[in-house]
Amino acid sequence: MTERYVLSYVHAAPLLLARQAGEATARTSLDLGLTTSEVHLGAERVVFSDGQWLRWEAVEEIAEDESVCYAVEDNAAVKIQRFSGVSNMVYVLMPTQRAPTVLVSGIQMHRVRDTDPWQDTLEKIRALSPLQGRVLDTCTGLGYTAIAAAKTAQSVTTIELDSDMLEIARLNPWSAPLFEHPKISQVVGDSYEEVERFEASSFARIIHDPPMLNRAGELYSSEFYRRLYRILKDRGRLYHYVGDPESRSGRNTIRGVSRRLRDAGFQRVDTRARAFGVVAYK
Questions:
Q1: Phi and psi (nearest 5°) for 11?
Q2: Which of 124, 173, 211, 247 has the most CB atoms lying inside 10 A of its own CB?
Q3: How far apart are CA 152 and CA 236, in angstroms?
């Protein structure tokens, strides 16, 4: 079985610099920054340790494209993107200097300004500290939340509506633990419906990081919050992503979300500005 290599402009650039310097080899990352590897620089192509290769034209294409990550398939560079039949939107694995994010029809699913997708995820985890017991992650995405939660939680159940999103995650090296970690269980389905299958008081913590309100209004509804309240243990906590609390839309969303959470039974709702969300207490 051949290795799966994934490159972005960040990791293609060192190859071109080494070629210009007349080097015979170069070191770069073939898994979006998780590790580094040595590759051979030929006259016409870059050759990887297992014999796979890319022509220099493909390396140059990757280096010039800051919008998408590329997988090496059959000695060609293939954009990691999918059209979703569920959402009728295009999903694109977008590179950053660290962990990639995913674009959903051009909208980033993680913060990247003054942070990166992995640090963005850790802020959400810290908002629920201490993260312990059974944890529910309502929207898997690239799986970063489930992966980070699994480091301290007893177990993590994560729900994803769209199998095309999971295919993007399978091609993302940073998402590998989502499919390998023994504490993580995946459910493919609609969170609005799937949470009804859990017994009452099943989870000590719930991480709710839904798409924007105008794309998934049911996941911001009073009925859904009542469903989450039912499956949360007494003294449990819910993190809910709401967006930038300093923006007008963020402030409006916080007000509406906080009111509906209290109506659903949560005793207290606190804003967590650094995590772009609120924490509700049962």
A1: -100, -10
A2: 124
A3: 16
Q: Which single residue is written with the structure tokens 């309100």?
A: 213
Is 0.85 surpassed by the pTM of this model? yes
- At which residue do the structure tokens 């994560």 appear? 158
What per-residue confidence (pLDDT) applies to 245? 82
Nearby residues of 234 by Cβ (< 8 Å), 6 or more positions away: 201, 282
- Summarize pLDDT for 58-79 with one digit per residue, the tens: 999 999 999 999 999 999 999 9
CATH 3.40.50.150, applies to 111-281: yes
Looking at residue 1, what is its pLDDT?
Answer: 63
pLDDT, tens digit, for every residue of 80-95? 999 999 889 999 999 9
Mean pLDDT of all residues in 189-196: 97
Q: Are 141 and 209 in contact (CB under 8 A)?
A: yes
CA 39, CA 48: separation in Å to the nearest integer? 5
Q: Which helix (H) or strand (E) holds 197?
A: none
Q: What's the Cα-to-Cα distance from 164 to each of 85, 102, 168, rounded to whole Å? A: 8, 12, 6
CA–CA gap between residue 276 and residue 262 (Å, rounded): 19
Which of 183, 281, 185, 184 is CA-nearest to residue 233?
281
For β-strands 70-73 and 6-7, DSSP reports them as antiparallel
β-sheet bridge partners, residue 208: 240
Q: Do residues 73 and 23 make contact, with C-beta atoms less than 8 angstroms apart?
A: no
Domain boundaries, the chain: 6-78, 111-281
Q: Which amino acid is present at 164?
A: D
The two structure tokens encoding residue 262: 């209290």
Over residues 182-201, the mean pLDDT reads 98
Q: What percent of the chain has pLDDT over 70?
A: 100
